[in-house]
Amino acid sequence: MRETSDPSLISEVRKYGVFNARGCFNCGSCTIVCDLATASASFPRRTMQSVVLGLKDSVLQGLDPWLCHDCGDCSDTCPREAKPRESMMTLRRYLTAQCQWMGLSSRIYRSAAWEIGALSFVAALVLLLIVLYHLYVVRLAPSAFTTMSMGLEHMFSRITYFTLAVFLIPALIITSHAARMFVLTMRCGPNAAIPLKFYLAEAKTIFLQMVTHKQILMCPATIHRRRWLMHWLLAFGCVLMFVIKFFFLRWFQTDNIYPIYHPQRWVGYLGAACLVIGSLDMLIGRFRKREPMRRQSGCSDLILPVLFLLTALSGMAVHVLRYTGMALGAHYTYAVHLMIAVPMLVVEVPFGKWSHMIYRPLALYFTAVKQRALEGQMAEGAKAA
Ligand code: SF4
Ligand code: SF4
C-alpha cells in the first residue's frame, strides 16, 4: 500500500528538539558506524529520511529510535554535522508524545517550563495534603506546627495507602501508554497479522532487556561499558527502593530503632548508594560534556538525575535525623522528601524521561517479535518451494 506524505511532519518533530536532517546528503556513514543498526533496522539514516519525506505512518510504526542507545558515534562520524544521534533522541520524544493520550508528554518535552510547572504543581499538592492531614486528621493547632515534636510514627497508618496510590496511579497511566504503543506499532500494516505464538515465544526478551540493559553493551567501546554500569546501578537502586517501599514499607514503620547490623538498614543503604552514585555520574558527565552523548544536554536531561539525587539525599537525611532522635527535623525533612519523590513518580514515570524504562524494552521486544515472525514466514516460504 502506498503511503501519503505529510510535509508538516518535519516541523512537528522539530518542536521536540534538534532535527537537522535537511543537511544530510545520505552518505550512510552514520548507519555504517552504528553498532546497533542491522539490515532490518537500518537507522539512523533511513529513519531520518522517513521524517524528511513526511512518511508519518512509517515513523509512527517504527521502533528504530528506541533501539538507538544514544552513544553518539554517528554524530561524531557525520561529515555534514547533521547530528543523527540528536535526531534520534528528538524522535524518541516525539514518539513518546504520540503514545500518550493526555497531551502532557508533548508539553513537557517541548517546554522545560511545563515540566518544572507540572513537578511544582504536584509538590504543592503534596504540601497541601500534609498540612490538611495535620490540621484535620491529627488536629494539630497551626501554632504547634513548628514546636510539637511528633516524629513520623503518627502518620504510618495513612502513609501506606498514600504510597500505594503514588506507585499505582503512574503504573496504570503508563500501562495505558504502552497499550497505545502496541496499537500504533504492532496492530497496523503488515504487523497486524503477526500471530500470538511469536509474542509468546519472545516474551523473555522484555524481561531480559529490563534486567540487563544489554543493548548498551552492544556498543563495544570501553566508555559504554562504564555507562552501562552506571545506568544499571541507577536502575537497580530504583528497583530496590520500589520493592522496599511497595512491599516492605512496614519495615520502616516501627517505633524501634533497628541496630546497625540489621539487614533492613543495609538494603536501604544499598539502594540509596546506587541512586546517589548513578545520578551523580550522570550529572557530572553532563556538566563535563566529554562524552559525545553528554554534549547536547538540555534542561529536561538534568531534571531527572537531579530528582533522583535529591530523593536519595532527603531520604538519607530523614533516616539520620530519625535515628539521632531529632524528631521535628525528621518530620520536616520527610515532608520535603515527599515533595521531591512524589512529583518525580507521578510526572516523570508516565509523562517524562523516566517513561523510557517501559518504551525501550517494549520496542526491543516488538522488534524481536517482528524478526521472529519474518523468519517464520521465510521458513514457511522455503518449505512451500
Ligand atoms: S552520516 Fe550524516 S550526512 Fe551521512 S547519512 Fe548520516 S546523517 Fe546523513
Ligand atoms: S547514537 Fe549510537 S546507537 Fe544511536 S544511532 Fe547513533 S551510533 Fe547508533
Count of individual beta strands: 0
Q: What is the percent of helical residues?
A: 55-70%
Please, what is the average pLDDT?
A: 88
The stretches of 5 or more residues where confidence is low (pLDDT under 50) are none
Summing up helix and strand content along with how strands pair, one would put the structural category as mainly alpha
Bound molecules: iron/sulfur cluster
Q: Sheet with the most strands?
A: none
Number of helices: 19
Gyration radius (Cα, Å) is 23 Å
Give the amount of beta strand, in percent.
under 5%
**Intertermini distance:** 26 Å
Note the run of SSEs as H and E: HHHHHHHHHHHHHHHHHHH
Shape, principal axes of CA atoms = elongated
Summarize the model shown.
By secondary structure, this protein is mainly α. Helix content is 69%, strand content 0%. One iron/sulfur cluster is lined by residues 33-34, 36, 43-44, 68-74, 84-85, 88.
Notes on the structure:
The protein is an all-alpha fold. 69% of the residues lie in helices and 0% in strands. Helix 15 (263-288) packs antiparallel against helix 17 and helix 17 (299-323) runs antiparallel to helix 18 (327-348). It is elongated. The two termini are 26 Å apart. The mean pLDDT is 88. One iron/sulfur cluster is lined by residues 24-30, 45, 77-80, 82, 84.
Blueprint of the fold:
Layout (H helix, E strand, L loop, with lengths): L8 H6 L14 H5 L11 H8 L3 H6 L2 H4 L5 H5 L6 H16 L4 H7 L1 H26 L18 H31 L9 H6 L1 H10 L1 H4 L4 H26 L15 H26 L3 H4 L3 H25 L3 H22 L7 H29 L1
Helix pairs in contact: 7-8, 8-9, 9-18, 10-18, 10-19, 12-19, 14-15, 15-17, 17-18
The protein binds iron/sulfur cluster (2 copies).
